[in-house]
Write a structure and sequence with these properties.
The protein has a single domain, classed as Glutaredoxin (3-Layer(aba) Sandwich), CATH 3.40.30.10. The protein is built from eight helices and six strands, in the order αβββαβαααααββα. A six-stranded mixed beta sheet has the order 1-2-4-3-5-6. Strand 1 and strand 2 form a beta hairpin. Helix 3 packs antiparallel against helix 4 and helix 3 packs across helix 7. The chain is globular and about 50 Å long.
Length: about 220
């Protein structure tokens, strides 16, 4: 009996240690890991380079400008980027009627700030929209490692960035300060959630109905 009892106790200890290891590694929680085995999902939508300038899509002299504030961790922003923006791109942007200007409102946590810093670094290589598209195609929870430093670097590589330049840029404290300042300014301007859209005097959080948004753009296009 003592042999069996000892064996059972030993097995319980081993099982307990194993459970602790699994929990610490995140294997039970389903949280993303930061390993180099991460394979990014290809973007659903990436605007053609001829339509992108900096953080804007569309001609710089387009008659209508739609300002959009997003947080890269925000799932509704993902729906906007992967669903609404492609429709606006086909309907208005490629015809030179609309320009969308992207702004940061990093408010969901630390990974919101680091992704925004990464987007600035991408912009410095004229790859903002390529990186932007990869981010919104690869969301995975909020502040759970989905946008950890190793994963952001992998996404940067997938978006075609020079990683030597990236490594130098991503740790630049002045860029982090600029992102924080932009987010603070957004809040002061009335942005409280993401996405927030602004066209002229109209400003709204969330994704409006397509018909309503099209009507507002069409009205703004009238002479």
């Amino acid at each position: 009996m003592s042999i069996i009892k000892n064996a059972l106790l030993t097995g319980a200890v081993v099982l307990g240690v194993g459970l602790v290891v699994l929990l610490l590694s995140g294997s039970f929680g389903g949280k993303p890991t930061a390993s180099d085995s991460f394979t990014p999902v290809a973007p659903i939508f990436t605007p053609a380079a001829e339509y992108t300038v900096g953080r804007g899509i569309g001609a710089t002299d387009a008659p209508v400008t739609l300002d959009v504030w997003t947080d890269f961790q925000c799932p509704i922003c993902g729906a906007w980027s992967n669903g609404s923006e492609p429709l606006l791109y086909e309907k208005y942007i490629t015809d030179g009627k609309l320009r969308i200007e992207h702004h940061f409102f990093a408010f969901l946590g630390e990974e919101s700030f680091t992704t925004a810093v990464g987007a600035v670094c991408a912009d410095k290589q004229n790859k903002f929209w390529a990186y932007h598209s990869y981010l919104f195609a690869n969301q995975n929870g909020e502040n759970q490692g989905g946008f950890s430093a190793p994963r952001l670097r992998i996404l940067a590589g997938a978006a075609g960035l020079d990683l030597t330049q990236w490594d130098s840029c991503i740790t630049d404290a002045t860029i982090r300060a600029d992102v924080e300042a932009e987010s603070t300014a957004a809040r002061a301007a009335g942005v409280t959630g993401t996405p927030t859209l602004k066209l002229g005097d109209w400003m709204q959080a969330g994704i409006p109905a397509e018909a309503d948004l099209y009507k507002r753009i069409d009205t703004a296009l009238k002479p």
